[in-house]
Amino acid sequence: MSNRLFSVAIAGALLAGGAGVSNAAPVTVDLYYNGFSYSGPGDSGYKSGGISGAGGVRAGMFNFSVRDGIENEYLSWSETLDAYCVDTATYLKEGQWVSYTLKSAIDYFDSSALNDIDRLYGDVESGVNSGASSAAFQLALWEIVNEGQSGYSLDSGDFKSWSFGSVESQAEIWLDNLASDVRGFDFYVLDSDYSQDLLVMSPKPSIKVSEPGTLALLGVGIAAIGLRRRRTQ
Asked: How far apart are CA 40 and CA 130, in angstroms?
């Protein structure tokens, strides 16, 4: 995940130290769904199975084209973004451009879920490099987002998955072995009224967004959208 997820997304820092956001317009961007990121010879880019509330779905990392992203001295957009789904109640819009607004993940997730997403991402991002591993990451992410508690299991609780085979087993291993420490990533959500919401990540402290920049699946799907790594000076 690290090689691909960070290499094609948002470049640069949204705001260094959070200064000046109060006078800035909301950060928005239009995205067009292209398909699964890892699809290619011998790799479909996804794995199929079922999840609670949605039935049959395909899980994996999404790829989007980018258009009309608001840019400033802190933020520039690449031509494409890779992403995961966090909104299993909404269908992903295909075949059209969709407008998104960047919001703080603090306002989107409760603190427990956000900390566990941070632990998951820090633990496994370097090992996500195929359709199967990206599907496992998507399942683990959905479990955390929808379950909202520790002791995660894809076989029980508010969120369940089935028929994903070894992908489920890998997701369970990751969930059962979350690090005890929070790793220190900043998280943001690309929010839309018309399509699935998407999660954006970047190593701290390179990204800072404060009020009021309004810190607000395929078929069903979030993905995690990655920001390019930016070393702290």
From this structure: 10
Sheet holding 80-83, edge to edge: 80-83, 62-67, 28-36, 98-104, 185-191, 198-203, 224-226
Which residues lie below 8 Å from residue 211, measured CB to CB, with a gap of 6+? 21, 22
Q: What is the pTM of this model?
A: 0.79
Nearest to 114 by CA among 50, 216, 188: 188
d(CA 26, CA 103): 9
What is the C-alpha to C-alpha distance for residues 160 and 165, in angstroms, rounded to an integer?
Answer: 13
Phi first, then psi: give them for residue 166, nearest 5 degrees.
-65, -20
Given a cut of 90, whether residue 204 has pLDDT beyond it is no
How does DSSP classify residue 124?
A: H
- Measured in residues, the chain has a length of 233
Helix ranges (DSSP H) in 53-205: 111-124, 131-147, 166-176
Per residue in 152-196, pLDDT (tens digit) is 999 999 999 999 999 999 999 999 999 888 887 878 889 999 999
- The domain ranges of the chain are 2-17+27-226
